[in-house]
């Protein structure tokens, strides 16, 4: 039985009627970390780790929500949609319902079972996948005709208001706009995007899950955002055209190092350099130069570790252990940081040996077990056709 079938079964058992089924994937990000909320550039893709939904309207006037993986249920009504302190998973769903309501769309009672295989807390955006899956399903059921970009923005708002993480748009965008065999460069200011073919035959994206759950992630994430805003405030006083760090040059940042102070200065340098690395990586992809993409990935990791300070010992060990291994182009921590996965670009024929090497290195150096996933790049959220 597939995951989708199992979730449909559970839906019928719980609610006794037939659901609509939707899938929404997690994501990787080749390069461009912590640039999205600075209105910069990112290069993500949707992956074959996804959240699956079974959803249908009911005549009960209530929202009956069930997590297939946790075997927990939550009920709410249109009048009681609010953030829960106790049940974190329900926030991702109710946060989305709230966004429809805020747009003046009445969301009548519905039943929902969801579950999936995006590892939680691994930096693969399981929460964005949950938000996007329900946004997509409700849009379909209610025939609201809201476009994908708007749905992604609503999902992001759900994260801000119900999970209290002030995330950028990358994760929800990737879950909605992924395309089979392509990474997608997003300009997080204009929301224009461009797909870049990714050689799925020759190259594997191998994720190494440090197993460290990012407990610092949401608080430190919000602090990084504030530090970037502080940087903009300082720079804006000298260069009024700087709206976000995306507009700043390295020269401008260097020129005001004293005024920025050591921490904010480092954050600013990182963001400006990382934006430039995304542009360079796109050019290298077009030229088929994966060696250069890999070099940029390693440079990105160094910046995240030393300047942005969102890495951790385990991630650093994994990145270092990848260096010089046969077939490896590049490696870096991925996502918000403080745990989760490293993303590794590896020649397909070396991918299995690479995994083995990494597992041994992690065991030897930290006495920890390593889980690895070789991921495929797939399409973004969509209906599941069960026929
Ligand atoms: C998390 C956020 F949700 C994204 O918006 C992005 O900022 C990322 O961290 C860091 O690049 O995944």
UniProtKB/TrEMBL annotation:
Domain of life per record: Bacteria
Residues binding ATP, per UniProt: 67, 121-127
Subcellular location: Cytoplasm
Keyword entries, A-Z: ATP-binding, Carbohydrate metabolism, Cytoplasm, Galactose metabolism, Kinase, Magnesium, Metal-binding, Nucleotide-binding, Transferase
Residues engaged in binding substrate: 33-36, 221
Domain GHMP kinase C-terminal: 283-362
Site for Transition state stabilizer, residues: 27
Its EC number(s): 2.7.1.6
Keyword Repeat tagged: no
Main location: cytoplasm
Residues reported in the UniProt entry to bind Mg(2+): 127, 159
Domain Galactokinase N-terminal: 9-56
Catalytic residue positions: 171
Catalysed reaction equations from the record: alpha-D-galactose + ATP = alpha-D-galactose 1-phosphate + ADP + H(+)
Catalytic class of the enzyme: transferase
Short name of any one Pfam family annotated for the protein: GHMP_kinases_N
Pathway: Carbohydrate metabolism; galactose metabolism
InterPro entries: Galactokinase, Galactokinase_bac, Galactokinase_CS, GalKase_N, GHMP_kinase_C_dom, GHMP_kinase_C_sf, GHMP_kinase_N_dom, GHMP_knse_ATP-bd_CS
Keyword Lipoprotein: no
Ranges of residues in domain GHMP kinase N-terminal: 91-179
Family assignment from sequence similarity: Belongs to the GHMP kinase family. GalK subfamily.
Function as written in the Swiss-Prot or TrEMBL entry: Catalyzes the transfer of the gamma-phosphate of ATP to D-galactose to form alpha-D-galactose-1-phosphate (Gal-1-P).
Protein name according to UniProt: Galactokinase
């Amino acid at each position: 039985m597939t995951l989708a079938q199992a979730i449909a079964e559970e839906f019928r058992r719980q609610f006794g009627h037939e659901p609509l089924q939707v899938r929404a994937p997690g994501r990787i990000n080749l390069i461009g970390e912590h640039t999205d909320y600075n209105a910069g550039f990112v290069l993500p893709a949707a992956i074959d780790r996804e959240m699956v939904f079974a959803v249908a309207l009911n005549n009960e006037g209530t929202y009956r929500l069930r997590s297939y993986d946790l075997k927990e249920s939550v009920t709410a009504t249109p009048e009681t949609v609010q953030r829960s302190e106790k049940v974190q998973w329900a926030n991702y769903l109710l946060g989305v319902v709230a966004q429809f309501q805020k747009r003046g769309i009445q969301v009548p009672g519905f039943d929902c079972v969801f579950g999936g295989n995006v590892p939680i807390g691994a930096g693969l955006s399981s929460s964005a996948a949950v938000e996007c899956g329900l946004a997509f399903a409700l849009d379909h059921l209610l025939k609201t005709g809201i476009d994908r970009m708007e749905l992604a923005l609503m999902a992001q708002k759900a994260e801000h208001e119900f999970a209290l993480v002030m995330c950028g748009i990358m994760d929800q965008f990737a879950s909605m706009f992924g395309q089979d065999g392509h990474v997608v460069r997003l300009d997080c200011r204009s929301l224009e995007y461009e797909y870049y073919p990714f050689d799925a035959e020759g190259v594997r994206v191998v994720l190494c899950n440090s197993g460290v759950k990012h407990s610092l992630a949401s608080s430190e994430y919000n602090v990084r955002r504030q530090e970037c805003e502080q940087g903009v405030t300082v720079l804006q006083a000298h260069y009024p055209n700087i709206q976000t760090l995306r507009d700043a040059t390295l020269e401008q940042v260097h020129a005001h190092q004293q005024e920025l102070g050591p921490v904010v200065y480092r954050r600013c340098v990182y963001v400006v350099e990382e934006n430039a690395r995304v542009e360079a990586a796109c050019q290298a992809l077009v030229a088929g130069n994966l060696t250069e993409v890999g070099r940029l990935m390693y440079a990105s990791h160094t910046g995240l570790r030393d300047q942005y300070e969102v890495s951790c010992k385990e991630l650093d060990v994994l990145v270092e252990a990848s260096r010089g291994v046969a077939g490896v182009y590049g490696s870096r921590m991925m996502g918000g940081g403080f745990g989760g996965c490293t993303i590794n670009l590896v020649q397909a024929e070396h991918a299995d040996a690479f995994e083995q090497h990494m597992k041994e290195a992690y065991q030897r150096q930290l006495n920890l077990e390593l889980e690895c996933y070789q991921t495929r790049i797939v399409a973004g959220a969509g209906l599941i056709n069960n026929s």
